[in-house]
Amino acid sequence: MQPITSKADLKRAISQLEEKQAADWLLLHEQIKSTYESFKPLNIIKSTLKDAASSLGIKDKILGAGMGITVGYLSKALITNAVGGPIKRILGTLLEVGISTIISHNPEAIKMASDKIFSFFSTKKTPQTEPDDEHTA
Asked: Is the pTM of this model over 0.85?
């Protein structure tokens, strides 16, 4: 700041400081409002879920668990579909839990295996042509 030598300079300096104080007060008020909003329970839950979803690997874990549960349920349904005796139901439940556990703990291996299977069936086999006898001579 420049040295104040007159009443006009003093009034100008006071006016500038009052404007700065008003602007700082607005910024402080907005920061308090933002902090208050961020401490609401719903906003804390939202931000926690957003952070968890954006962390690496969480989507793969959810996908693996979902795939494991689905395949386990389908395998149980295939075993117990016809006659659902008590032994078959127990074996079906054990199979469901086992397959779900294996798939949910190894989603990368299952994904690689399924990619290989899909690529095997999706590749078109081209017929091999016999070499011409005229061109080989």
From this structure: no
